[in-house]
Predict the structure of Transporter substrate-binding domain-containing protein.
Amino acid sequence: MTARRRLLAGLCGLGAFGLARPILARTYADTVNTVGENLDELRAKGRIRIAFYRDFAPFSYEDADGHWAGIDVEIAGLIAKSLGLGLDLMPIQAGETVDDDLRNAVWRGTPIDKSWANLLLHVPVSRELEVRNELVAIFGAYHVEKLALALDPARIEGGAFSLDLLSGHTIGVELDTLGDFYLSMTAGGRFREATRRFHGTGEAVAALVAGEVAAVIAPAGQIEGLLGPERGRFELLTDVFPGLAVTSWSVGCAVRENARDLGYAVGDIVAAAVKNGTMAGIFGRHGVTYRAPVVME
């Protein structure tokens, strides 16, 4: 599974369609007490390890030279530099849920070698998620992501947009994401058979460019970054999903709960980057429209 599948699958549960879900706190008997380093310990060591998702362009991916690149990789570099620390990158393969990612990257360690990071990026800033993961502090929102519909105007014509315009067309989605669940459930499932499911958003966007599908539903940032120079050929729409309660979400950072001083320091760095335009510049370099979260004074 890709990184955003767990995020969006989590969002597209009953709560995404306006139905309440219980919030269940959990305890973990297998916690390793040595996981987590405070800011003084990191400064004594001189380095910080920051985790991010594999295969998640334009946020984090391997470039043609085999180096890690992307928006989140640049943010990791900004954080390390601002703290005066060397940077160790920790790419992770996304688990079935974001809760799995928090466990494996932040508060316990990976199941194979128990390696862990001081900080995980691109975490949904959600009170419900934090309540379920009491050994983690979630903070530092740096971007607001929105679900989007990218369509080929040469194939889908009309005036004001409505879902009726999609009738008779094939729509691409990544398997088991919010877009997939939405098309399967909305309007009595009328778009279920017209949905073409791909293993990744990159494949869906490539199919849109190749003319194999007429539209794609996915996070706006991924669509824009993946389209790259082809962006001008397509129309990108947000807020066009009637009946869907969750269409946008903030992403930020997570640390283990015993490293909250690191969280406070990173939160200040992120907030400053949002306010002074540094964050917008990072997103702009990757062709992604930046949506700033609300940052408290």
Notes: The chain has two domains: 3-144+250-285, 146-238. The two ends are 38 Å apart (CA to CA). Residues 12-32 have pLDDT under 50 and may be disordered.
